[in-house]
């Protein structure tokens, strides 16, 4: 049974940071290399970084399956734009391919509907082929390249993907 737990406490923030380090190191090292993974985890997914995002406009959710913490997601709603940024969607490798990601996306789309938002968008690394194929299967379309300088001599070399719904 899947569960979604809005991240508020320091304990929950620490759990997100732990999951992020494990998932990002395993998943992104072959894609962007260890140096950029370490830089991005520190800058965007360390406990202080997640805490700062939660204090601003990010909503993080820890995802549990049978009461075990198996992943997390983060969203940034933009009511004026009528859209929602799906900033993070990550599962431990052992938990993939069993339908949990689809339920996470359904949860995100329900959040949108409740807030009257008709579009979800995200950015995905151009070489994260499995995730791109998954997003396409889930109904997203590729809206083109988006390159962002993140400092430290690194860039995020991504595609923007989006999905509109009723
Ligand atoms: C992306 C991710 C969240 C998807 O979650 P998941 O639990 O593995 O996906 P699901 O099992 O819910 O898949 C849902 C459907 O997509 C299909 N699917 C799974 N992986 C796929 C892939 N790589 N390409 C195409 N279809 C795929 C499934 O067969 C399933 O099909 P169905 O509609 O017939 O049921 C998860 O794989 C993940 O954490 N990946 C690594 C991290 C990552 O890259 N995150 C995105 C960062 S931008």
Short description:
It is built from 5 helices and 7 strands. With 166 residues, it is α+β, with helices and mostly antiparallel strands. The chain has a single domain, classed as Aminopeptidase, CATH 3.40.630.30.
Structure overview:
- Strand 6 and strand 7 form a beta hairpin.
- This protein has one domain: Aminopeptidase, CATH 3.40.630.30.
- Strands 1-2-3-4-5-7-6 form a 7-stranded mixed sheet, with helices on both faces.
- With 166 residues, it is of the alpha+beta class.
- The mean pLDDT is 98.
- The protein starts with a strand and ends with a strand.
- Helices cover 41% and strands 37% of the residues.
- It binds coenzyme A.
- The site of coenzyme A has 18 residues, from strand 4, helix 4 and helix 5.
- It comes from Desulfatitalea alkaliphila.
């Amino acid at each position: 049974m899947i569960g979604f737990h809005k991240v508020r406490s320091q304990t929950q923030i620490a759990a997100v940071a732990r999951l992020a380090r494990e998932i990002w190191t395993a998943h992104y090292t072959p894609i962007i290399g260890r140096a950029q993974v370490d830089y991005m985890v520190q800058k965007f997914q360390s406990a202080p970084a997640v805490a700062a995002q939660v204090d601003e406009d990010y909503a993080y959710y820890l995802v549990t399956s049978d009461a075990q913490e198996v992943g997390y997601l983060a969203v940034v709603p933009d009511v004026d734009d009528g859209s929602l940024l799906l900033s993070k969607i990550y599962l431990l490798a052992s938990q993939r391919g069993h339908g949990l990601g689809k339920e996470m996306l359904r949860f995100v789309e329900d959040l949108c509907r409740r807030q009257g938002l008709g579009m979800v968008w995200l950015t995905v690394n151009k070489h994260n082929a499995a995730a791109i194929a998954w997003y396409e299967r889930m109904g997203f379309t590729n809206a083109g390249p988006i390159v962002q300088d993140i400092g430290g001599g690194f860039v995020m070399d991504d595609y923007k993907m989006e999905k509109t719904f009723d």
